[in-house]
Structure formats: C-alpha cells, structure tokens
Design brief:
There is one protein chain. By secondary structure, the chain is an alpha/beta fold. Helices cover about 40% and strands about 20% of the residues. The protein contains 13 helices and seven strands. The chain has a seven-stranded mixed sheet, with helices on both faces. Strand 4, helix 5 and strand 5 form a beta-alpha-beta unit. Helix 5 crosses helix 9. The protein starts with a helix and ends with a strand. About 40% of the residues are buried.
C-alpha cells in the first residue's frame, strides 16, 4: 500500500486539497480541545492535518507513504509527521485524546488489529471520527455504468458498516453516531465521486491520478472505453438521465463516530 501511495503522492496535492466543509464537520464530530493531542491516521500529504492545526489544535500525522510525508513536512515542519500504519502507530499507550481518519480505512490491512491499536493509544473516552464510504453507497455511484470492473474492485476493498462495527466492538470501541454526506458542487478534495455533479472532472488526468481507484485499480482499456462513452453521453445529454437513475437516499460517503469503551 505504501508503494501505491508513493506513486500517487507525486502530484497528489494538485487535486487533493482539504475541503472546508469536510474539515469543519470532522472537527465538529471530534470536538477537540486546545490542550489535547490528536492523531490524523493515514494523513497523506497532511492537507487536513494542516487545517486542523490552523484551527488551533495539535495533531500528529501518521502515514505509511514516505513520498506523502515528505510533502507534508515541506509544507509544515511544526507538525509531528511519522511513518506508521493504523495497525502499528508506534505511539505510547493512552497518549492520544482523539483520532481522525479520512478516506483511509479501506487501505488498512487488518481492521481488527488496526482498531485494537487505535484503542490502545486512545485515552479513556477518546473519540474516533472516520470519513469513508460503504459498498452499499458505492453501488449508487453512476460511475458503475462506465467503469464497472474498477468500481467492483473498489467495493471489494471497502469494508461495510457492519464489518467496521464488528471490528470496533471486538477492539473495545463503540459507534455512537453515523452521518451521511452527499457530494457538493464546490468540493475541493477531488476523491473518487468528486464528479458526481460535474462529470467533466474525470477527463482530467491529474484528477484520475490522485484517485486510487483510477490510478491503482483500474484497467487502462476500461478507463479509455468508459471515458469515450462518458464523453458521448455528455455531448448527447444522456448523462442527465443516467445520473438521475442512480439517485438514492443512502448518501455518497459516511461519517462514523466512535468512542473508547474499554481501558
């Protein structure tokens, strides 16, 4: 996984920028204090970590990608950045007041071990806030029409909400709330479903390079064919009916809020 993100990290910051609304919501759910110490697990190039710090909170950024962390350090040397994974943070037991993980849990190699590790480093009553999507939500992406194999492969690596819940419970964590998120037109962080309302975004090579599904999972022939068909449907107006046919009430992504239940 670190090798994959070392490759993606080369031009990652061109299209993956911290989105103000997502930043605001993550902090709202975490409810951090100015004197606490927090962890951004799977921080990547630190886009969100930097925004959390700008809001006056102290965060450690951990990621398995050297390339990502080098970019993070270049931008801000006042944050502690370190190599690590959710399964092995190398942090002291009960040293962290809260944890945020943004679009990262599908890259963890062992959910149970990861949540056990995060529970270990959390202080009593510490919170975890995850931003992710579920396979059920992803089945509602109109991208399935153009890139079916890529979406299938993406859904395979994405844990269901029940799987996350079971892994958390076994680790001594409890989900206290969930909240659906729908893509907004002004989204600045160009992750997988960023083009929900603006399909033209997917013709940008840089945007696709910054999305792991396109850059690491997709078949080149399927992408070329899918983009060709997408272009025809945009030009003919057919895309509008297709997008409407995929509308649902599940939300596009999900905030999962949990807390430590066992010391």
């Amino acid at each position: 996984m670190s090798t994959k993100y070392n490759k993606i990290g080369i031009n990652y910051n061109q299209t993956r920028k911290a989105n103000p609304f997502l930043t605001e919501q993550l902090l709202k759910h975490l409810n951090p204090t100015k004197n606490g110490l927090y962890l951004d697990i799977g921080c990547g190039t630190g886009n969100y970590t930097n925004e959390f710090q700008k809001s006056g909170f102290t965060f450690i950024g951990i990621d398995p990608s050297i390339e990502m962390l080098q970019k993070a350090r270049q931008r801000n040397q006042n944050i502690q950045w370190q190599i690590g994974t959710a399964e092995n943070t190398n942090l002291t037991q009960s040293s962290i007041d809260g944890i945020i993980g943004t679009l990262t849990i599908h890259h963890w190699t062992n959910l149970s071990r990861a949540f056990s590790e995060l529970n270990l480093v959390l202080k009593p009553n510490g919170k975890i806030v995850l931003f992710t999507s579920t396979p059920q939500q992803m089945m509602g992406y109109w991208l399935n029409h153009y890139f079916p194999k890529m979406l299938d492969d993406s859904m395979v690596q994405m844990p269901s909400l029940q799987t996350v819940k079971d892994a958390m419970i076994s680790a001594g964590l409890k989900i206290t709330a969930t909240e659906a998120y729908n893509i907004k037109p002004d989204l600045q962080d160009q992750f997988l479903y960023c083009g929900k309302q603006n399909p033209e975004l997917y013709f940008d090579d840089n945007i696709r390079q910054g999305i792991s599904s396109f850059s690491a999972l997709a078949n080149k022939d399927e992408v070329e064919k899918g983009l060709k068909n997408l272009r025809m449907d945009i030009d003919s107006g057919k895309i509008n009916d297709l997008v409407k046919s995929y509308e649902n009430g599940l939300g596009d992504y999900l905030y999962i809020i949990a807390e430590k239940t066992k010391v």
